[in-house]
Amino acid sequence: xxxxxxxxxxxxxxxxxxxxxxxxxxxxxxxxxxxxxxxxxxxxxxxxxxxxxxxxxxxxxxxxxxxxxxxxxxxxxxxxxxxxxxxxxxxxxxxxxxxxxxxxxxxxxxxxxxxxxxxxxxxxxxxxxxxxxxxxxxxxxxxxxxxxxxxxxxxxxxxxxxxxxxxxxxxxxxxxxxxxxxxxxxxxxxxxxxxxxxxxxxxxxxxxxxxxxxxxxxxxxxxxxxxxxxxxxxxxxxxxxxxxxxxxxxxxxxxxxxxxxxxxxxxxxxxxxxxxxxx
Length: 279
Description:
three-stranded antiparallel sheet
């Protein structure tokens, strides 16, 4: 595996493979890597000839400066993991490499996708996501890009961005990887104590209960029962929604295939998100 820090260096490294008609798979990350990320890297390796992973904590998608400051950074361990799981090129750029002075931020109409759930509670977040992912796609020019469905709304936003900007990249959404007890793997879990990790299991328990309830109750009643169940635990709920899988609008009438429950909450000072397809 080769570690590259500059845009020009990465472009040069990939040019020969591109000329040979090799397919490039890309896994963008913010580091503090875990098995969930490695699942994406392995999937990229199975479907593509060359695997590129980026590690970049993007400042433009944090609306909370404290969250940006506290976000875990483990570059040496990240590099070791990427090498172990078959990554060919690990891209560790600086902010100046990603955002040069002359770079123009693309305009993307996200419709209502950035006004609900994460967009409502983290204003500007998805503008930052569009900014960094479009820039990384511009640099890497991948054939396929791999994202985890734990960030369900982010995947919807990126698919919309690719469609709006007519980018020639296939977005591959991969199932959320969980611990044996069900906690969604996340870089933020590194900030949780063992006791908090146990408390945080209420998230997956709530999602699983909602999946069962969806067979019997309406979306509104399922949501009501899930909220009551969750609030019996110790975590502080920010939002809980059952949404259309593409528009992310709340389901208030009948069920539809792909209906998804999304949760954001705080375990102590750590913000966690998760989701589950109910039908």
